[in-house]
Amino acid sequence: MLEVIKRSRLLMMTGLLSVVLAGCSGDTEANVAEETDNEGTEEVEPDAEDTTDEESEGGLDVGIILPTRDEPRWVQDEQRFMDALSDSDYTTEILFSQGSSANELQNVETLVSKGIDILIMSPHDGDAAGAAAQAAADEGITVIAYDRLITSTKAVDYYVTFDSVAVGEAQGQYLVDNAEGSDIPLYLYAGASSDNNAFLFFEGAWSVLQPKIEDGTFVIANSSEAEALSGTAELTRDEMGSIMGQITTNWDPNEAINRAQTHLTSAGDDLKGDVAILAPNDGTARSIADTFSADSDITSYVITGQDAEMASIQYIIDGKQSMTVFKDVRRLVEDAMGMAITILDGDTPETTGSYDNGAKDVEAMQSEVIVVNQDNVKAELIDSGYYEASEFTGLD
Ligand code: GAL
C-alpha cells in the first residue's frame, strides 16, 4: 500500500504556518449560513480582501466534501476546518454527502459551478467517488482525497490521511496485551467494504491477531470465513472481503447492534465469559459494548475503538470501552489546507509517500495515530487542547 519515503514534515509545516498567517487579514467572523442544500451545506464567507490569484475572485477557492453529518467523527472534521479557516482569506464551502454517492456527485457539481480550484473530498464509497472526482478533474480542479482514498481512478491528485494500517495494528495489539490465558473468545467486527480504510484497519489488526489465533490465545467466535483463514498470515483483498462480509458494521451503530445480538444469540457458553472484541471505530464500539454488557453470560470484555469521539472518551473514563485510537483531526485539516494553499499559490505540495489506488500511485501525506485508554486520556486529549475537561465527568 504505502511506499514510505521519509521527507521532512517540518519543512512543510513551516511553509503552511507562514501562508495561514499571511492569509489572516482583518478579523473575519465566519458567517455560517445553516441552510441545507445537497444535504447539509455550510458556507464560510471570509472577508472579501483577496490576496491570491485573480481567477478565484468571487468564486470559491476550496470545496470540501465529507461523508456524513450523522457520525460525530465527521462533525469533528467540519468543526476543525471551520476553526482552521475562521480567519483565512480563502473562501471555502463544506458539504455533506449523507451516505449517498449520488449526493456526493451533486455536491461536486454544485462546487464546480461555484468556481472552486481545489476539491478536498472524503468519499462515501471509494470506487463510486471516481465519477465525482472525474467531474472535478475535467474542469481542471485539483482533487485531494481526505482520510479515505478515492479508488480505481486517475482523477485524484493527492491524498492526506492517517496511518490506517497502524490503527488496526494498535487495536489488535491492545487485545493481545490484555489477553489472559488461552482460548479467549474473539469477536471480530469491521467497517464498510465500500471504504478502503476498512481494509487497511482489518489488515493491520489481522497481522497482529492471526499469530495469536494460531497459537490458541484467541478462538474466533463469530466468523467461519476468518476461522477458515486462521492459518493465513497475509490475507488477499478478496480473502479480507469474504471475512468482512460476515462481520461488517457498514459503520452503522445500529447494524453493529444487530450483528452483535445475532452473534451472541448463536454463541455457546464456551464463547461467552471473558471475551475480546475488535470494534473498528468508536461509533460502533459503544453499541457493541452496550450489547455485550447486556448479556448476562458475558462476565467481562476488552473492546477497541477509533476516533476519540467525545462519547467514547466518557465510555473509556467509565470503563465501558477499553481504548480508542486517537487521530488528531486538527493535523489532517492542517495537512489538507496546507496542500490546498500551496497549490493555490502555484507551488507543488510536500508529500511523505504514495498509495496505489488501483489506477495510479497517489502522492500522499500521512499522519501518526495515538492509542488512548484510561491512563492517558487527560494527557492526550485534555492537555493537548483537543477537548475541554468540562466536557467529561469522572476525569481525575
Ligand atoms: C473511516 C475513518 C474512521 C471512521 C470511519 C467511519 O474511513 O477513517 O475514522 O470513523 O470511516 O466513518
UniProtKB/TrEMBL annotation:
Q: Name one GO cellular component term.
A: outer membrane-bounded periplasmic space
| Top-level taxon of origin | Bacteria
User: Residue span of the signal peptide, if any?
Assistant: 1-22
Q: Which UniProt keywords apply?
A: Signal, Sugar transport, Transport
Q: Name one Pfam family in it.
A: Peripla_BP_4
Q: Which residues form a coiled coil?
A: none
Periplasmic binding protein domain location, by residue? 62-347
Output one GO MF annotation.
Answer: carbohydrate binding
Fetch the InterPro entries from UniProt: Bact_Solute-Bind_Prot2, Peripla_BP_I, SBP_2_dom
Q: Answer whether the UniProt record assigns the keyword Transport to this protein.
A: yes
UniProt keyword annotation of Transport present: yes
Instruction: Report residue spans for region: Disordered.
Output: 30-58
Compartments, record wording: Cell envelope
Bias regions of kind Acidic residues — which residues?
Answer: 32-58
Kindly provide the name given to this protein in its UniProt entry. Answer: Putative multiple sugar transport system substrate-binding protein
Taxonomic classification = Bacteria, Bacillati, Bacillota, Bacilli, Lactobacillales
